[in-house]
Amino acid sequence: MVLGTVLLLLFAVAASAQAPMREFTGSVDRVDETKLVIDNRMQDRVTFVRFDRTQVKGERRKWSQLRPGDRVTVSWRFVDKPKKAYVVQVLRAGAKQP
Questions:
Q1: Domains observed in the chain
Q2: pLDDT digits (tens, 9 = 90+) for 47-57
Q3: Cα–Cα distance between 84 and 24 in angstroms, integer?
């Protein structure tokens, strides 16, 4: 029984690590120490959580520097519940949304 549980956990971790990354681009609606809410031009709002491997790149380099209105692209994996922000790429002001 224990061996089965361990194997199931190892399989889940391996599947998560191999899941393809997805991207979501929009403007920061809200940000706090643990989560980021992004709003795109189609009125979609998606919440991402910060975790120990989250990286912030581009115009800002730290999570604490993110501000409402910043244009960002967040890389995440579909299998993660809740959605984890692996990379938050802060875009230049005036950058066009794909």
A1: 21-90 (2.40.50.140)
A2: 999 999 999 99
A3: 12
